[in-house]
Write a structure and sequence with these properties.
By secondary structure, the chain is an alpha+beta fold. The protein has 2 domains: about 200 residues, Jelly Rolls (Sandwich); about 200 residues, SGNH hydrolase (Rossmann fold), CATH 3.40.50.1110. The strands form 4 sheets. Strands 1, 2, 4, 9, 10, 11 and 15 form a 7-stranded antiparallel beta sheet that branches. The N terminus is likely disordered.
Length: about 425
Amino acid sequence: MLLAAGAAALSTPLGGRAFAAAPRSGPRLDHDTPVDLDGSQYVDLSNRVRALAPLTAGTIVVTFRTTSHNEAMTLLSASDPTAPSSNITLNLSGGALQFSVREKGAVLINVMTRTRYDDGQRHTVAVTVDGMGTRLHAGGRTVLQTTQHSFFGSVSGLSALTLGRNLDSDHPGGEWFCTGTIERAAVWDRVLDEAELVEQSPRPDLADLGRISTILNSDTPATWVVTGDSITHGALHTNGWRSYPEHWTERVRWELGKPKNRDFVIDSGVSGATSAELLARFGERVTAFSPHVVSIMIGTNDIATSGLGPEVYRANLVSLVRAVRALPGSPVPVLQSPNPVDPAKWPGRVGLSRYAQIMGEVAAEQNAVFVDHYNDWLSGNGGQAPLSLLNDGLHPNERGHHRLVLKMIKDLRIFDATSRVCSLRIP
C-alpha cells in the first residue's frame, strides 16, 4: 500500500519534492523530506522515472536510518513491473549495502559490501557509475569498487520508481520493504566526486573509516596489526577464552568469508608496555609486519609509570599515529582507549579517564578512528566500572574481551547479530 498521505500521494512524491534539473547543474531527482516506513509502506515516485530511465552514468545518494534488521530492505528501486527481475536497486542485504541491475532475469551487476549499515544510525550511502566502473560509498567515502558498470539505461521498460520497496511481475505487491526512515533520495546524471559526496552527507565519515571499509570489502589480502599492553596481549586474564584480537581474527578471517581468510591479524601486544616503550620498539612491534591497519590500545601502564604523565602520553600518541601513517603504503591507524578499572583495587589508576580523554582528543586532532571503550563500559553500567568484565579489577576477563571486540566490530561496521562472534554468550 502507499504510505497514507491523502489522494495526492498517488500522483506526487510523499511529503517531499521530486523535480527535474538541468544537466550537470544538480540532481535530476531529489526527494528531500523524511518518510517513516514500517515494513509495508513505500513512496511512489514513478511519475519521475522517465527522467532517469536514459541514464548510463550518474550518482544515487540516499540518507536513511533503519529501525529493524530485515534480511532485505530497498532504499531506491526503478523497475519494469510487468517483467520478472528487471530492475536497478540500491538496498540493504543483511545490513550490507548492495547495488544490483537486472534485465529480464539476467544479472548485469550485483555488488555488495561486507560492511553493514542497519545499526539504527544515520547513514548516507551512494553509488556512482560511469565507464570506468561502479563504486559504492558511505558517509562520502568510497568503500567498494568494481570495473563492472550498469545503470538505469541498462534496463528496458522502466516505469516504476519507489523508495522502500522493489516491484516486479513476480511480486506485484512489492518485496524487500524497508523499515526505518529514508530522509532523502537523489539521483544525478553525473558522477559526484568525493568532495561533493562528503557535502551531500549530513554526517561525513572519516577518510580513515572509509579506508578501513575498503579494506574489509576488498578481496585483496590485508595485514592487521593489533598492538598494546597486556590487555591486547591477552595474557592470563582471559581464563582460556579468546582475547579481543582473537575474536577479531575469527570475525574477519573466517566469518566474513573467503577470500578474507587470506588476511592476517598479528597481535604484537606485550604485557607491561607503555606508549614510550611502544614507540621505542615500533620497528619490531609494527613496522616488521608491513601492516595495512594498525590498532593501538595503550595507556593503562602509562598512568603508573614515572615520567609518563598526561602530556607526555599525548605527545607519544601523536608520534605513534604519525609513525603509522609514515610507513610504506600509509597504513590506517586506529586508536582504542583502555577500559576503566576498579578504583577500590587500583586507586593509583583512578585518573585513567584523563588518558582515555586524551586519546580521544588526539584521534580527533589527527583525524584517526577512535574506539572509545572507556566510556562504552561506563555508559552501560551507570558510570561505574563493570566489575563483572574484569578479572582482577584491571584486566578484562573473558567477558570483558568480548565486550571490547563487540565495540570494535560495531565501530568498524561489521556487526552481525547472527554471527557466532557477535552473538557469543559467555556463562
